[in-house]
Structure formats: C-alpha cells, structure tokens
Design a protein that fits this description.
It is built from 5 helices and 5 strands. It is of the alpha+beta class. It starts with 8 loop residues before the first helix and ends in a 7-residue tail after the last helix.
C-alpha cells in the first residue's frame, strides 16, 4: 500500500479532484445498522487479509454502529478516529479533503487559528456515508496507516459495498 503524499500544488489539486469524484460516486440508496455491519465487515476482511494494524469505526453522530480494532491497532487510533469523524460530521467532506484543499494554495488548515486540532483532524481516513437525495447519514473512519492509505482503504471498501448492491436496508 503506502501511497506517496502529494508534494506540489498541482498534485494536491489532482488529489482533491479525485476525492470530490469519490464523494459523487460513492453514494448509497439507504443506510442502516445492517449496512454498517456489512461495510464494517468488508473493512475487517480487507484489513485482516492485508495484516493491517487498523481500527475501524462507523457512526451516526454519537451512535457507534460498528467498531473494531485489528491486531496491531493502538488506543491512539481511537483518538484519531474520533477527531477524523468529528471533522467529517462538521464539514461534511472526507477528512483528507479537508486537509488537502488548503495545500493547493500552499497553506495548512492546522495553521488557521479557528481550526481546533484537539477536536478535529484534517488527515485521511474519515469519509461521509451519503444517501442519494438525502446527504450524509453516517461516517466511516479508519486509522492506523499513513493518511492516504487510510483514505484509500475506506474508499475501496465503500466501492465494494456500493458495487455489491449498496444496502440491506431498502
């Protein structure tokens, strides 16, 4: 895995465009607790097959629908998950996009006085679960890998979920 971090404004712009496409592509028809379990188990399978030291979380606000820690995950991963999920909930976009957009202009969101780094994280791994015609209904988050790998793992699992019929709730 281990994707290379962008280094130039052009690379950050390309990454932002890719993430924006993923947001559009990865919407579902409905999403409930059974769907959270199915998506969570997709992530567990992918993480186990890759021997990835990750924690996985799917939540709707304060309601945790799914949570798992695979071999090698640490307590700090849960802290990162909470901060990434809070970022997605507040800003309505993937946590990687939140950190990527300012870098196009050579800035870091963490340097902005209004951005509370103790509560929020602009690092990859948090992604909104969006229902078509409704909007965000949950957040899926992974922590334990480099940030782009966390993001890409979530996107791959969401893609598998959507391609597999997307929902059990409908």
């Amino acid at each position: 895995m281990t994707a290379r971090e962008p280094a130039t404004p052009e690379e950050f712009a390309a990454l932002a465009a890719r993430i924006e496409d993923e947001i559009t592509q990865l919407q579902v028809d409905a999403f409930g607790p059974a769907d959270a379990l199915r998506l969570g188990l997709i992530l567990v399978r992918r993480g186990t097959e890759g021997a990835l030291p990750i924690a996985i979380d799917i939540r709707r606000g304060e309601h945790i629908l799914f949570h798992a820690a695979l071999e090698g995950a640490q307590a700090d991963n849960d802290v990162w998950i909470a901060r990434k999920a809070r970022s997605v909930e507040r800003y309505g976009i993937p946590s990687l996009l939140l950190g990527t957009r300012p870098k196009i202009a050579g800035k870091r969101i963490e340097n902005e006085g209004w951005f509370d780094q103790m509560s929020y994280a602009a690092h990859g791994g948090g992604f909104p679960v969006s229902v078509k015609g409704v909007g965000m209904v949950a957040v899926v988050t992974v922590s334990g890998l480099p940030q782009i790998d966390d993001h890409d793992l979530v996107v791959a699992a969401l893609r598998e979920f959507v391609e597999g019929g997307g929902t059990l709730s409908a």
